[in-house]
Amino acid sequence: MREEIEKMVAAGKLGSKHVEPLLELTGSGYCYHRSWGFGKITTVDTVFARFTIDFTDKPGHQMDLAFAADSLKPIPATHILARKAADLEGLRKMAALHHLELIKVVLGSFGGQATVDQIQSVLVPDVIADDWRKWWEAARSEMKKDGHFRLPTKKSEPVIYQEQQMSLQDRLLSEFKEAKGLKARILIATEAMKSFADLSDKAAAVNTIVSKLNEEIASHQRTQTPTALEAVFIRDDLKAAAGIEGTPDEITATQLWGQDTSLVEVLDGIPAPKHKQVLESLKIANPNGWSDVVIRAINEVPAKQAGECATLLINEGKVAELQEALARFVNHHTGSTELLLWLAKSKGDHYSSLMTPELFRAMLTAMERDQFNEKKSNRLGDYILKEANLLKRLIADADIEVVKDLTRALQFSPVFDDMDKRSLLARIVKLHPQVQSLISGESTRQQEVPLVVSWSSLEKKKEDFDELVNKRIPANSKDIEVARSYGDLRENHEFKAAKEEQKRLMSLKATLETELNRARGTDFAAVRTDVVSIGTKVNLTDLGNNQNETYSIMGAWDSDPDNQIVSYLTPLAKSLLNKPIGTEVEFEMEGNKKHYRINSISPALEHSTILASNPADTASPDVGAQS
Question: Which helix (H) or strand (E) holds 8?
Answer without folding.
Answer: helix 2-10
